[in-house]
Amino acid sequence: MKKLIYLIFRRFYWNYLHYQEIELRKNFSLGNTIRFDNLSLDGNVTIGDYTYLNDGCRIDSGENSKVEIGKYCAIGRRVHITGKTHSLEFPTLSEENPVIKHDEADTVVGDHVWIGDNVYIGPGVTIGNYAIIGALSMVNKDVQDFEVVGGVPARHIKFNTKHRKYPR
Fold this sequence. Notes:
Elements: H1 2-17, E1 22-25, E2 28-30, E3 35-36, E4 39-42, E5 45-47, E6 52-53, E7 58-60, E8 67-69, E9 74-75, E10 80-82, E11 84-86, E12 102-104, E13 107-109, E14 114-115, E15 120-121, E16 126-127, E17 132-133, E18 138-139, E19 147-150, E20 155-159
Parallel strand pairs: 1-4, 2-5, 3-6, 4-7, 5-8, 6-9, 7-10, 8-13, 9-14, 10-15, 13-16, 14-17, 15-18, 17-19
Antiparallel strand pairs: 11-12, 19-20
């Protein structure tokens, strides 16, 4: 009987609770109306009102950096936005180096940004307002307001001139 109860609980946990988990560590600020599922936040993270993050997102920063995400953003599944990366000087642990060294820089996502699924946004990147990042992209350079980018690394595709707020 105990084994049956354990199996039922385990199935319930993995099918329901496990996917509803959210991991929050260190300093973060969440807007009043954000939506998220299976999200990991680590470090100094700020997320604006009416922004939603789909399942599997990871937002993290180092001790000396921060990640800011604006209002009204749509962030796809399995997106990683970071303010830190391994240093080339000491990228892994060794006997001489017991601590991994990180390079850090602030990462900023503007307002009304649409980020597709499986996107990586590296440290030091600023994404302008109303920008669109295509799925499966790796963003390592700044993105301008209304710019549409995609690819690995992300490259300019066009400006979203059809947007009603695009300056004419």
